[in-house]
Amino acid sequence: MSKPSSDIIAEGAFYRKKLLLSMIIPGIFVFLMWLVKIIEVLFEIDLSRYGIYPLTARGLPGILFSPFIHADFTHLFNNSIPLFFLSLALFYFYSEVALKVFIWTFFLTGLLVWIAGRAAWHIGASGLVYGLASYLFFSGIIRRYFRLIALSLLIVFLYGSMVWGLFPGVYKNVSWESHMLGFFSGVVLAVWYRNQGPQKPVYEWMEEEEESGGEGENGGIGDEDEETKELNIINEQPATINIVNRIVTHRI
Fold it and tell me: Is residue 207 over pLDDT 70?
C-alpha cells in the first residue's frame, strides 16, 4: 500500500528539519575556525603559539584551541569542507550519540597529541577530521546495519586517500601524529558507543521464526512422546488378546 500524501509531506518535513538541525554545530564550528583566521589576518597576529606543544605546560591550552588555528587559508579550506560534511553525517545518522562522540573526539585527539606528538607546535582541525572519518567508517561496520555500512563505503570513496596522512614523511610540515591519533580515537569511540545510537533493525518475521522454532522443538518432543505411548498400547494389545484367548480355550 502506498502512503497517503499527507504522511509523505510530514515525513519530508521531518527529514528536512533533522538535516537543518544537524548543520548547526558543524556550521558554528567551521564559522569559528574562519573567524579565528580572519582575526589573525586583520590584526596581523600569529596564534600558532596557542597550539599543542607536547609534554609542556604551555602546550596544554592547545588541546582546546588548536583545532581553530590554521597556518593559512589553504590549510583552513582543506579542513573546513571535510569537517563540515563528516560532522553533518555524524549528527544526522548518529543523532543520539553525536554530541558525545564529537566532544570526545575533540579532546581525546588533542590529549593524545599532547602526550605522544613531536616537539613542535601542532595546529589545525585535521586530527578531528580523521577522528570523525574513522568513527563513521568503523561504527557502520561494527553495527552491521546496511544503511550505516553504505555510509562507511561512502566515507572510503570520498576520503579514502586520507589514509596516506597517517604515515610520517608522506606530507611535509604536516602533523601526521594528529592524523594517526585522531584515527585511533575514532576507532576507540566506535567500539565504546557500539550499543548506543542506531542499531541493526530486528523485523517481526525474524522474531516469529525464532518463536515458532522454539515451539516446534518442544512440540516435536511432545508429539514423539504421544506417538511412543500409542505404539506401546498397540504393542501391548496382541499380548492381552493372546492371554484372553488362552483362558477361554482352557475353560472350553
Answer: no
- The model carries a pTM of 0.77
C-alpha cell at 85: 560534511
Are 121 and 53 within 8 A, CB to CB? yes
Whole-number Å distance between alpha carbons of 176 and 181: 8
pLDDT digits (tens, 9 = 90+) for 3-31: 677 778 888 888 899 999 999 999 999 99
* DSSP 8-class letter at 120: S
Domains and CATH numbers, the chain: 5-192 (1.20.1540.10)
Comparing CA positions, the residue from 252, 88, 109 lying closest to residue 189 is 109
Q: Which residues pair with 122 in a beta bridge?
A: 52
Give one DSSP letter per residue of 45-85, joined into a string. ---GGGSB-TTSGGGTTHHHHGGG--SSHHHHHHHHHHHHH
